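Hi, here's the filled form for the chain we discussed.

Project: internal
Contact: R.S.
Residues: 603
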Amino acid sequence: MSNLANLALDGGDPRLSKDAEDPALRKEEGVFSTDSDQGITPAIRPQNRVPHDASISFAEYAYYAARTRAEEEEHVGDIAATQSWVQMIFPSKSGMGASNVSGAEKQGAEINANTNLAKAENRNHITAEEWTNASRALRTATKSAIFYLITTDILGPFGLPYAFATTGWGPGITLFTVFAVLAGYSGYLLWTIFMGMDSYEFPIKTYGDMGFRLMGRWTRYLFNILQSIQLILSVGLIIVSNGEALSQAAKFKLCFAICCLVWTLAGFFFGQVRTLQKFGWLANAAVWINVICMIITMGAAAHTAPNYKGAAESAGATLNGGTSITPDSNGVFPGVQHSAGLPPSGGFAGSVNGAMQAVFSYGGAMIFPEFMSEMRYPRDFLKGMWAAQSFIYIIYMFYGLFMYGYQGQYVINPSYLGIGKYNFQTAGNVFAMISALIAAALYGNIGIKVMYNSIFVELFHAPPLSTKAGKLVWVGLIPVYWSIAFVIAAGIPDFSGLTGIVAAVCILQFTYTFPPMLSIAYMMNKNTAGSFDPATGTETKSGKGILKGFFADKWYLNCFNLVYMLGALAMAGLGSYAAIENLIAAFKSGATNSFVCKSPLDG
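And the returned structure, exactly as it came back:
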């Protein structure tokens, strides 16, 4: 998708000089337009800025953001923007997308489709009105779409029983509750920053955009790299988990590497969906498919024995040397075991790595800015987010505790692979595979946009994905992206160790470390910013220093966010250490990767 606000030319338009003083002439040439609200001629038009222009001040971002928010409030009128909580969760046919799209915005969509805005010469003749309409045209998603996009998660619900099995009843419930509350708070912080800095003129498209505007270019690079790593590994993890499910459904008669390859090829097709609005209905289906899969696996767990054949992949294998899943001399496996507190692990690595699986439930914060950037009314994001977080907490918690109650240390990650009876096993696998493919397509969608816009569009002026040429490039990128994801994930033998690394290094940062860090930077910038004059393009400095910015308005929140950020960093360090220890143990034990025919679940 085109990053419209950040595609620009070095400096202002040279034709906007004192040699071209006739406004009528300049307007006729298409290189002049006034501020539609104030009748002010901007000193430098937003579309003539260099990509990620470091000279743009916080005050300028805030000025245009305030105008955009005011305009949005004036045009709140479609049903999708005012729908109730029930209508949000059970939307009508038009409930996923905005309905009040104006003719000017349709023209803006045509500009996106027919013009390569990555090239400076193509932007010189676009007026300010056309520029903002092109930005508006990309904003179509509603809070219903956001609810389903956030809850389109395959690794969260089905990894949670494993988390409870490695942490026990009490610590597991406590950790998951704390994660839920803080994840909601982090979402609120990201929303506050977005609302204060996003505009039609300078839209925030990615998490990296937030970091760049508040903390500089290095932050944007860091965020984009970590986000790309998380997304491509998430796609790879789903390919491998679906490969395990397919091999189980085929009774291990199909080569495991081929099982994984099947889903990679399927991703070539499903990954072609480009916009989040279109993903809304796929996400809707995925959520209810997940619920069906949960019901099937809970019913099967309550009436059948665990999958002892896959015990080597269970939570018990990481605890206390695997003694709780080791059969006796007669081949009889130990009974199902539970722990009120932390289970005996012979070291904390197994329990910490298990706790990291719970973090997956709240990993959506990484793409919250992308979700908000495609919303018609981003103010409604909070409603969709809180509804999704509540759904995740209640439904996932119940499912995780239920599965742990019946399967104990034999829980496998993902949990639908731990059903012993083939018929129930296959039913759960089929639904899980469909839902997982949709989730992987969503992760791949965002991942490709981040990499393509950050590298190809910005550095090489490639056609934005909204153009016809960009759509053709998208078709070719999908197979490459999915193939790389498969190769990376399949080369690592320990599924839970890999998910632990992803959770600690990437997910935990985007959900729990970066939001409070960015919030502190936002409040400091806000408290020290002066007033912006669009006519001159200058900011009147406030004269406040950095220290005053921290201890000015709502200093107590800055203090809390600082403690919150440091605590999240400490947790990330522990999680990384535990996941690495698990991976080292997996390699030492001779565990195989996914480039083999024997499935890891086959004894």
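Let me know if anything looks off before we file it.
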